[in-house]
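Ticket #4471: structure output looks truncated?

Reporter: J.K.
Steps to reproduce: submitted the chain below (99 residues) through the standard prediction queue, then opened the result file.
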Amino acid sequence: MQHLKQKNLAFELLKKLLNNEIKARSRHNIVEARKFSEMLEQSVAQYQKRAITSAEVIDELIKLAKDIKKARGRGESLNLNEDELAFTMPFLRTNPPGM
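Returned output as attached by the reporter:
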């Protein structure tokens, strides 16, 4: 991230892309979308308070994007579509597979 000249532009672009992805996820899994939205808002708030640098917030947003991608793959590994996964997730949290 240190070599980027326009870190603010990169931050704004990542924020916009993540917001769009979170909105798309909210159609199928509102709980998960809310969690990701809160994570995004927290990172943005820290950046706006100057608690973290632009490079640090970009790193956090990239990590969030990876978490969203991993969540998308969770349904595939269980052979569930997004709606089935959204319905099943509360049960999986209380009774993990194999227990």
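Triage note (M.O.): checked the attachment and the full token line is present. The two ends are 42 Å apart (CA to CA).
Status: closed, working as intended.
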